[in-house]
Amino acid sequence: MTRTDEGRADGPISLRHNRIELALHRLSPDKSTAQCRPLLLLHGLGEHTLDVGLMGMTWSGPIYGLDFTGHGASTVPVGGGYTSEVLLGDVDAALAELGPVTILGRGLGAYVALITAAARPDLVHGAVLCDGPGIAGGGVQPGSPALAYPPPWGVNAEATSPDPFALVELSRDVRPPDYAQNLLRLASDDSTLERVFYIAAVARPEWLAVLVNQPGVHVGTVEEALDYYSTEA
Amino acid sequence: MGPFESGADSVGIPSPPADVRRPDRRYPVDSSGVEISVTEWGSESDPPLLLAHGGFDFAETLNRFAPMLADGGYRVVSWDQRGHGDSAWAHLYSWDADVRDAATVLSTIGGGAIPFVGHSKGGSLVMSLAEVAPHRVSSLVNLDGLPSGNNMPDVSEHERTRLQGEEMRAWLAHRRSLVERQRRPGTLEELAERRGRMNPRMTTEWLQYLVTVGARRDPDGWRWKLDPTMRFGGSGPWRPEWSMLRLPGLGKPMLGVVGKEPEVMGWGTTEADVIPYLPRGARVVGLDGVGHFVHIEAPRLVADMILEFLA
Predict the structure, then answer these.
(1) What DSSP state is assigned to residue B62?
(2) Which run of H or E residues covers position B14?
(3) Among A50, B1, B152, B191, which is most exposed with the fewest C-beta within 10 angstroms?
């Protein structure tokens, strides 16, 4: 994983994750006036960074948004094969570029934020888990078997974004609650934060519901969360 | 000389074992943009049988076993899984993608319901294929490809969490190492020796033969054709019991073959692990003194068991 392009002043930073070029967008003014570590936005399933935008958020440091594989300005792979763990690798490419961040994730991006905080507790300084597309995933265990074929647009034709395979495969992604609890433990064990996660999501599938009332988890609004993480060293 | 051997590049290549036969036909199929290389042995007019190789193998590891099934009266259809053998290297790899590729190969074969045979990962793969296309399977043969929950050591919750953390960090270390990664070149003997570490029960003659059909010869040496970015296992929440819980519902005849000698590539699954999950009428046979690659260590025995089971 390497940074391959400085990017134009108005264009995204290009990051490489194996055979994928990822677009990392800078959404707020430059780093020079920053008082706080970057905030990294992770969009929901089928969304992309520039589509979601800042949604009225304020943050005292720079704000970035990553387009996941197959979304927005990132490479659309051929022939599918998505897993949440691939998207974890996407975020890790952004962490290699940005260093420690606070993450705000929507839907699918909220789940990927949880995994990333568990895998890189030293680089994720708090995460806000918000409503958004793909928040439920495929449930707590595999459902009835079916071939994961996308809707007919875009396949075997020009690559289209979002990748139809991403829409299908990442909505079947299994998320057992005890697995989510382990992820919370991994994220919390070495964290200096009292509130490692803020749950701002109203919709709470099993993987998210099981985190409520656990040590290290706080339920509150996006504004409260960003205020907390921007003042906690 | 087999149909794919040109003879132009044969200097320094050991002659193949006497009882191997390269595929009679090879052709590409398109799986949503990923080119999958299909191989066949036997007469095109014989009834088809689908045969799936294991992880990090390739169809031509079946050059001894598949012809025995073909000579038993089947058109044996196999394929190189994405990233393996002569199939394309993909952007991404996942179980869903492998099952979809398998279904694409199956869709090119006429003839309604046919037998599925798979080794190791290929055994799990054809089990998934049987679930998503139950109308296309007539019987299922699983060659040491039944996962067992028992190989997860009995560890405390705290320890399990720690292991999960290590697994995730190893996954990310792997992902960060991938850009422009190439396979390390070597002599034919070196490649055989490297593969032997994961296949310790195979003969040097066989391993060197696999190099001649599974590696390519670059100016700086031989390289396995396998995509160098693939890795065993991910870091996700998958559990072996999820596969096993699908087994009892299989409504077709099933034969399981388990190699009882433990080895590095195997699941360590025993007959006793499998029996509670077997569908009605299914049977599982354990082979003493045989390791994970039952079809390579005992090809005649296993081929005869399958032919008798299908008869």
Answers:
(1) G
(2) none
(3) B1
- Return the pLDDT at B225: 96
**Two tokens at A22?**
């990822």
Please give the pLDDT value at position B9: 58
Whether residue B76 is predicted with pLDDT greater than 70 in this model: the reply is: yes
CA-nearest residue to B94 within chain A is: A81
Give first-to-last CA distance, chain A, whole Å: 28
CB atoms closer than 10 angstroms to residue B224: 22
pLDDT of residue B161: 82
Return the CATH number of the domain spanning residue range A2-231: 3.40.50.1820
Nearest to B131 among A82, A118, A145 (CB): A145
Backbone phi and psi for residue B45, each to the nearest 5 degrees, phi listed first: -90, -5
Nearest-angstrom CA–CA distance, A173 and B65: 36
Taking the CA of residue B179 as centre, how many other CA atoms within 13 Å lie in the half-sphere pointing to its CB?
14
CB contact under 8 A, B131 and A156: no
Residues in chain A with CB shorter than 8 Å from the CB of B99 are 147-148
CB-based contact A20:A75 (threshold 8 Å) = yes
Q: Can the peptide bond before residue A162 be classed as cis, meaning omega within 30 degrees of 0?
A: yes
Question: How far, CA to CA in Å, does B187 sit from each of B12, B212, B226?
Answer: 10, 11, 16
| HSE-CB of B126 using CA atoms within 13 angstroms | 35
- Where b means 16+ CB within 10 Å and e means fewer, A191-223 reads bebebbbbbbbeebbebbebbeeeebbbbeebe
- Tell me the mean pLDDT in the region A200-208: 97
Q: Model's pTM, two decimal places?
A: 0.92
Domains, chain B, ordered by start: 25-152+238-310 (3.40.50.1820), 157-224 (no CATH)
Residue A180 Cα to chain centre, angstroms = 15
Q: Where are the domains of chain A?
A: 2-231
- What tens digit of pLDDT does each residue of B197-210 get? 989 999 999 999 99
Q: Among partner residues A78, A85, A155, which is closest to B236 by beta-carbon distance?
A: A85
- Report pLDDT for B149: 60
Tell me: ipTM over 0.85: yes
CB-CB under 8 Å, A119 with B172: yes
Specify the pLDDT at position A31: 56
Strands of B48-52's sheet in order across: B25-31, B34-41, B75-79, B48-52, B114-119, B137-143, B254-259, B283-287
The DSSP element (H or E) to which A143 belongs, if any, is: none
